[in-house]
Design a protein that fits this description.
Elements: H1 11-37, H2 47-72, H3 75-88, H4 91-94, H5 100-127, H6 138-150, H7 152-161, H8 164-175
Helix pairs in contact: 1-2, 2-6, 3-5, 3-8, 5-6, 5-7, 5-8
């Protein structure tokens, strides 16, 4: 993730700081997982070891889901702002070596769409469980674990590509030095209904 302002002046810049912190948390958690699976003496052949490995894997997936949950609350708007910023910068200077940012913004949005679809599907399935199947019961927790595991690659892609939002902002500030030129353009209202409360 590109560096963000140390003293953010706008809501977008504040969110850039928050986004950077969340992505750093993800990297720390992934590093801890990598250290575990790379241990030469980590047993994986016995039933007990397989159970321990599965529990750690479920925890990794749950941690990744909880890490991106705050990002999903605002990152669509950040992507829209980044696209609008990009259009305001001189096209000749901007297209030379930054066209890949368009693709990264699109891929970030595709990952969000995948996560939203998973959220909707599993919220429906969780709502259809018997009333006795609350959080902490095997039926409920099995669905949560399944959702988190299926979200792994979408979370990976979002984390890889959403840094383009920060790169665009830095480029925007560099090529639009006057404060009046850096006024943030209006952002279209999100097309998706994201008001439904997610399950954990």
């Amino acid at each position: 993730m590109t560096s963000t302002p140390s003293h953010p002046n706008t809501p977008h810049e504040q969110r850039l700081d928050h986004l950077g912190e969340l992505l750093l948390t993800r990297e720390v958690r992934l590093a801890a997982w990598g250290n575990y699976i790379d241990l030469p003496d980590t047993p994986k052949d016995s039933p007990q070891a397989a159970q321990s490995y599965g529990q750690r894997l479920s925890r990794r997936d749950a941690d990744m889901w909880s890490t991106v949950a705050p990002i999903r609350a605002f990152v669509r708007e950040m992507i829209s702002i980044a696209r609008a910023q990009k259009k305001q910068v001189d096209e000749a200077a901007y297209r030379s070596n930054t066209s890949h940012w368009y693709s990264q913004l699109n891929w970030s949005e595709e990952a969000l769409d995948q996560l939203d679809a998973l959220e909707e599907d599993y919220c429906s399935r969780l709502d259809n469980l018997p009333s006795s199947a609350a959080a902490g019961t095997p039926e409920y927790d099995a669905l949560i674990d399944e959702r988190n595991a299926k979200a792994w690659y979408a979370i990976r892609n979002l984390s890889l590509y959403v840094s383009a939002v920060g790169h665009v902002h830095e480029h925007f500030q560099r090529y639009m030095p006057r404060a009046e030129d850096r006024a943030f353009p209006p952002v279209p209202a999100p097309s998706r209904d994201t008001t439904r409360r997610p399950h954990q």
